[in-house]
């Protein structure tokens, strides 16, 4: 078991957001070469390396965090779908079981999956799969979360859905083998100051989204679950329409280089699905 020799905590370097000078709105433009189809990005912000960040290992204390308390929640639930090689099969098999799992874990009455991402770290190679994200971030701003409801739900349903509580929750899990290489770190929402958060526009040819950049704060409390297996997963809250201080609204997160990773550990492979979660 990964937990038998797990350290209590590890110390590493994280990459934080630094806003553009002069108060300019932060943005990232997704560009596509019209000839080659190659995707590139143009941005007006930077990142900074912050060393000596302590990340607490919650092995044996998984229940000390929850979606409403810290913004993320671990679970054990072996998936029925295990190949994760074909998008159509993922949508046909993994989506339905994930919807039922999220309903069970949250008490939600309606869950809509709007996309998924497979991540595989392949050093030195161009991969058709995305590499782990090595920057502290939040996937959706409040404005973008509301826009997602309009974009993915029938127009006739939207007004009623927006009257009640809704969330955006990512379901993340390793695939194939334990994620000892480049695991996922999550930041306790209660340690995040509103001043740490900066909206970042995502500009596409046909639309605009918005994520949240996260500036460094020495008060941030980072956690992870070392050596998560494919039978384990974590729910990551990216947005909650309840914003009165009674619950966590989001949790910053990032992939990171774990100094306790055993030599020869297989490179990280994972899947995350992104969902709109509604309650009656």
From TrEMBL:
Domain of life according to the entry: Eukaryota
Name by which UniProt lists this protein: Hydroxylase/desaturase CTB9
């Amino acid at each position: 078991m990964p937990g038998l020799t797990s350290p209590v905590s590890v110390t590493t370097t994280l990459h934080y957001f630094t806003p553009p000078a002069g108060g300019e709105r932060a943005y990232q433009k997704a560009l596509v070469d019209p000839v080659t189809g190659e995707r590139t990005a143009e941005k007006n912000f930077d990142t900074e390396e912050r060393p000596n960040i302590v990340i607490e290992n919650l092995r044996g204390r998984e229940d000390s965090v929850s979606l409403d308390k810290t913004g993320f929640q671990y679970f054990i639930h072996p998936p029925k779908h295990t190949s994760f090689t074909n998008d159509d099969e993922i949508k046909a098999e993994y989506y339905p079981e994930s919807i039922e799992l999220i309903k069970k874990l949250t008490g939600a009455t309606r869950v809509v999956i709007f996309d998924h991402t497979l991540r595989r770290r392949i050093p030195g190679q161009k991969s058709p799969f995305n590499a782990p994200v090595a920057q502290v971030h939040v996937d959706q701003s409040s404005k973008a979360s509301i826009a997602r409801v309009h974009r993915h739900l029938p127009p006739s349903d939207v007004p009623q859905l927006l009257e009640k509580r809704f969330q955006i929750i990512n379901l993340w899990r390793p695939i194939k083998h334990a994620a000892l290489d480049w695991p996922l770190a999550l930041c306790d929402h209660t340690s995040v100051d509103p001043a740490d958060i900066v909206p970042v526009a995502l500009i596409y040819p046909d639309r605009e989204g918005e994520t949240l950049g996260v500036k460094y704060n020495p008060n941030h409390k980072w956690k992870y679950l070392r050596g998560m297996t494919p039978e384990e997963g974590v729910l990551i809250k990216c947005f909650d329409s309840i914003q009165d201080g009674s619950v966590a609204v989001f949790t910053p997160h990032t992939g990171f280089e774990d100094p306790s990773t055993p030599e020869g550990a297989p490179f990280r492979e994972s899947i995350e699905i992104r969902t709109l979660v509604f309650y009656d």
